[in-house]
Amino acid sequence: MPISTGLWLRREASSNEQRTVITPADAAALVADGFRVTVEESAHRVFPIDEYAAAGCRIVSADTWPDAPADEIVVGLKEPVPQPSALTHRHIFFGHAYKGQTGAHALLQRFEEGGGSLYDLECLTDENGRRLVAFGFWAGYAGAAVAVLHHRGQLSAPLTAMSRAELDDLLARYRDDACALVIGALGRSGRGAVEALTVAGVRTTGWDLAETRQFDKSALLAHDLLVNTIFAAEPGRPFLTHDDLGRDDRRLSVVSDVTCDVTSDCNRLPVNDKVTDWVMPARRLHDEPRLDVLAIDNLPSLLPRESSAAFSMGLLPLLRQLPDDGSVWTRSLDQFTAARKLTSER
After folding, report:
1. Phi, psi of 262 (to 5 degrees)
2. Residue ranges of domains in the chain, CATH in brackets
3. pLDDT in tens, 143-180
4. For position 343, what pLDDT does the model report?
5. What are the phi and psi torsion angles at 200 (to 5°)?
6. Among this protein's residues, is 78 annotated catalytic?
7. Catalytic residue among 89, 91, 96, 150
8. 327 — pLDDT class (breaks 50, 70, 90)
9. Which residue ranges does the record assign to the Alanine dehydrogenase/pyridine nucleotide transhydrogenase N-terminal domain (predicted)?
10. Cross-strand pairs, 296
11. Active-site residue among 44, 78, 105, 286?
């Protein structure tokens, strides 16, 4: 029997966002399962629209999701375009709105105004709170790669999307004696960072929970590169403070903040309070000794095909649980409901 739930894959608003959360191959699997899959045209998506049509999807013009039938679930990666302001449908995307981030209140107000709901992709977890699907590996990979290239003076701006083979070629062209520290080394992002540093031939130290609890500031400052990949749900000891910037014993010269909690109380790198972007990937924090930070909040977009394929593969079995709200989707909706309630009470 055909499944009644419709999935409406919208285009992404950002011109440098080529990723998608559903690839043509996985869209074909959903269609075969009986899902109605509608895909908006996009000038930037890494997968051509013809591949979705061949997968059996219905193709529509960009930004037509506001007029989609009420029972459609609108699927995307980041927040949709600003208009209409009221969000009426059920939506699936990364909201980044539950830890006090900049723009969080405005996003939740859009749902309050329209009566819609959000299944936040960041909140698809198992019963132990472990995230079930994420772009983390490729965020860590790209974050470490751009840090290495910047340290070597090889990072070209503005950044452009590429394949892993192209990025690996850049990393392997040159060898130096740099050393890097990855915090959160055993997580998805940390594993990606370590792999990229291995390709680049950079000596790497990995810290995870045990090492971070012990926390040796002098050891941290003795590395050339720091790649922060931890996912912090609450405030904690900062890794780098303003008092550290002028220390004579600081070897550290490049920080890649993959986590990018820059506007949240959970920010473990309070020396940085701004994201960087593709046009200006690095920002100078201190002159002598030099310290630059890279805090790009859509790192996996540098490798759009690989990161999209991995994420879509992980999301597919969860989408197959729709339309019945299984525990995974219920947990995500519960977090949205709690956050929206707080917003409405203010």
Report:
1. -70, -20
2. 6-123+304-345 (3.40.50.720), 136-302 (3.40.50.720)
3. 999 999 999 999 999 999 999 999 999 999 998 999 99
4. 61
5. -80, -10
6. yes
7. 96
8. confident
9. 8-142
10. 276
11. 78
Average pLDDT, the chain: 93
Q: How far is the C-alpha of 43 from the C-alpha of 27, rounded, in Å?
A: 19
Alpha-carbon distance of 102 to 274, in angstroms, equals 11
What is the 3-class SS of the chain, one letter each residue?
CCCCCEEEECCCCCCCCCCCCCCHHHHHHHHHHCCEEEEECCCCCCCCHHHHHHCCCEEECCCCHHHCCCCEEEECCCCCCCCCCCCCCEEEECCCCCCCCCCHHHHHHHHHHHCCEEEEHHHCECCCCCECCCCHHHHHHHHHHHHHHHHCCCCCCCCCCCCHHHHHHHHHCCCCCCEEEEECCCCHHHHHHHHHHHHCCCEEEEECHHHHHHCCHHHHHCCCEEEECCCCCCCCCCCCCHHHCCCCCCCCCEEEECCCCCCCCCCCCCCCCCCECCCCCEEEEECCCCEEEECECCHHHHCHHHHHHHHHHHHHHHHCCCCCCCHHHHHHHHHHHHHHHHHHHC
Q: How far is CA 132 from CA 188, 234, 313, 345, in A?
A: 11, 20, 11, 31
User: Look-up: residue for tokens 């037509």?
Assistant: 64
223 counts as catalytic: no
